[in-house]
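in:
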């Protein structure tokens, strides 16, 4: 490969790398800015970080502790697991609750409260796992951003040095930069969906709680 073609290749590659580095800087700077209102400065989402949801946020029915352990009521636990699952459409919730009530004997109010207690715990478990994954994602992106900046700086230094020539080392570095930039950009595009998931689960919990309370 001639020096001209090597330089042309680097000229084409560096803008994408610089874009990724700029995106990375925005990610880090955004975290710092959000630290003013967020307890976690590394939180990468636009949505406010909300940890474990308490019953009082979505529930105004009977005290869930007084209803007894939800996981000791087999039918209530089975229904809670089905309602908490994101695979269950919200349009099916009313029918599932009505079917449960038709088969329930006495203490329907207590049993419905157990169903809610189960849904609350299971949704929180799901959300907590997702929040932990987002935290890992943010730290991974920051580490990748630092690597992209280092690779970009090394290529720029090699390109601007007198008598710059292509070597196996610079070829390998350009290839690595290309892949790192691509991975960073693909992960950034997926951030919108990932960040929305905890919010969707919170809304799901609120909707299910409302429908249960309508039947108390």
């Amino acid at each position: 490969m001639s020096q001209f073609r090597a330089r042309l290749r680097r000229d084409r590659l560096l803008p994408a790398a610089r874009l990724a580095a700029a995106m990375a800087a925005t990610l880090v700077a955004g975290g710092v800015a959000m630290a003013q209102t967020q307890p976690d400065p590394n939180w990468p989402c636009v949505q406010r970080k909300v940890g474990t949801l308490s019953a009082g946020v979505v529930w105004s029915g009977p005290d869930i502790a007084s209803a007894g352990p939800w996981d000791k009521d087999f039918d209530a636990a089975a229904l809670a697991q089905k309602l908490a699952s994101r695979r269950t459409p919200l349009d099916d919730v009313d029918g599932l609750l009505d079917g449960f009530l038709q088969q329930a004997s006495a203490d329907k109010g207590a049993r419905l409260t157990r169903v809610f207690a189960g849904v609350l715990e299971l949704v929180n478990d799901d959300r907590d796992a997702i929040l932990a994954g987002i935290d890992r994602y943010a730290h991974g992106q920051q580490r990748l951003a630092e690597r992209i900046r280092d690779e970009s700086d090394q290529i720029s230094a090699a390109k601007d040095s007198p008598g710059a020539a292509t070597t196996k080392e610079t070829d390998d570095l350009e290839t690595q930069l290309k892949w790192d930039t691509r991975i960073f950009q693909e992960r950034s595009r997926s951030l919108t969906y990932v960040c929305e998931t905890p919010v969707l689960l919170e809304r799901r919990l609120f909707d299910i709680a409302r429908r249960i309370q309508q039947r108390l």
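note: The helical segments are 3-34, 55-58, 74-84, 93-103, 108-160, 168-213.
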